[in-house]
Amino acid sequence: MKILYWTDLFLPDVGGIETFSMDLIPALQARGHEVTVVTSALTQDHTTVEELNGIPVHRFPTWHALRTNDLKLLMSARKAITDLKRKFDPDVTHVHFGATAYTFMQTQRAAKAPIVTTVHALPDTSLLQSSLFSKLVAESAHVNAVSVQGYNRLSQAFPQAAECMSYVYYGLGPAAHREVEVVPPSFEQPVILCLGRLIPQKGFDVALKAFAKVESVVPDARLAIVGEGSEEATLKRLAAKLGIAMKVDFPGPVPPENVYQVINTATMLLMPSRYEGLPLVSLQAAKMQRPIISSDVDGLPELIIDGQSGLVLRENNEEELAEAIISLFQNPARAVAMGKAAALRLEERFGFENCVDQYERLYHEAVSAAD
Questions:
Q1: What range does the domain containing 113 cover?
Q2: Whole-structure pTM value
Q3: Does some domain include residue 181?
């Protein structure tokens, strides 16, 4: 089967979708499928073609054109994408819904292949009500969320398409899952970890405000905010304003192959997100037996069972977050037990081969329905 794989970004841009894609695509290739990636880059203003670990990757300047409102560049990218679609002639197209989906829809006539759409984070109902998203749902053979809660929101918003919707959990494949020995979390040199893109969605500003309350109770603690993004300067200014800059580290992005080593340095992981799908880093932290403190948004509570495999809190609440962090520092045995419970839940519910099986089944069903 020929699969056109559409995603906003792809490695070396680092993120959960990018890392997951570097697991899913080789697994599909190993099962005999031909996969071509269509993607963009944050600042790229030209088209490139490369082979990345045996995967053909076509990068178009769609993201840059949309951000800069460069209509001439956008039209040029649309033409090039149209030409690629006609040349590749896919049997099915897998779209990860994001900012460049507009360009996908504008070029859809070039290839009449059925569409399987994956929806990750849903910020609010306004996205669900947008004409672009509604059109993509209407034209998709199948739409899947990455969590049960995400599926519930989608099926409630589009009851007429509910029978063509499902959820598919992530799994940790070779790119996301390295065989790294688990180092027990340290409470003598405690490190609180935030790992992800430095964007408002992740709520790292809430983590900083909570840490300002924690460091007076746990004076040896440090906060590491690992990643890169548009909010880096804002977060650094906030740390300085709160008087905690000397205890907060911003080491920058970490390549996928080093994520487990970074998690091994942490005592716990914070995920104070404002909205999410099912963040890959939560699965990775569970694999390394770290307790996770997260917001009660979409997929996170499906991995993190409150009081068992972590703590689940209301979003945007630095008071509750600070209290939760302090409670785990004051009871290390409970924190360690939560980390082990998270690893067990990961093993029971989030298998990678099952994830690949489900996507392959969706592709086959989409193609069969189109015949």
A1: 2-171+351-370
A2: 0.90
A3: no
